[in-house]
Design goal:
single chain, mainly alpha, two-stranded antiparallel ribbon, 7 helices, globular, LipOase_C_sf, metal-binding, dioxygenase, LipOase_C, oxidoreductase activity, acting on single donors with incorporation of molecular oxygen, incorporation of two atoms of oxygen
Length: about 190
């Protein structure tokens, strides 16, 4: 069944009347389409725009610029991944997140709906940082995070593929750093 709160008239607080549709009912195909479209918007807005651009990449580029010298091997390594980050995120802020900008129209939100979506975003991003300390969090290691999710019953193709990609990236970084440093601990003590 699909429970849809966006199918009826909206109240001033943005909530709607819940409509339940089950397989075989007249609006089942439409309900599936609305669900897939909503999920796509959610992933784009929360995981990509908010999580990747406005959170992670901002932290990364700020850290690299403030903490690593221009000739530091790790900064040189990260340069292609952070190139134009500030300009891209500035454009996203101006063109996608502001009221009466193109963002709410692209995502089919009212300005109020966009505000509500962004207000919810920090609680929806799943990256390992949301894991409470009582359960060993926050978890920054993708492999440990994937294991944590599996124990919680979350075992999806997305997480399996992201773990494979993380392992490839981790090995690539280790090989790169080994070229410059004799041990894995050596970069920590570099001025």
């Amino acid at each position: 069944k699909i429970v849809d709160q966006g199918d009826g008239p909206f109240k001033d607080d943005g909530s709607g009347v819940a409509t339940v549709t089950r397989p075989g009912e007249p609006r089942w195909e439409e309900s599936k389409f609305r669900f897939r479209s909503s999920l796509s918007v959610l992933v784009t807005l929360v995981d990509h725009l908010y999580g990747i651009h406005l959170q992670l990449s901002n932290i990364m580029v700020t850290s690299v610029r403030e903490q690593l010298s221009a000739d530091h091997p790790m900064r040189r390594f990260l340069c292609p991944f952070t190139f134009q980050t500030i300009a891209v995120n500035d454009n996203a802020r101006n063109n996608l997140t502001q009221p009466r900008s193109i963002g709410p129209r692209c995502f089919a939100f009212t300005d109020q709906g966009m505000t509500m979506a962004f207000a919810a975003a920090p609680n929806l991003v799943m990256s390992g940082l949301e894991v409470p300390a009582s359960e060993g969090g926050p978890i920054l290691n993708r492999e440990k995070y994937t294991e944590y999710l599996q124990k919680k019953g979350i075992d999806t193709e997305y997480y399996r593929q992201s773990l494979r990609y993380w392992k490839i990236g981790r090995q690539f970084i280790a090989d790169y750093m080994a070229y410059y440093y004799p041990t894995r601990a050596a970069p920590v003590f570099e001025p």
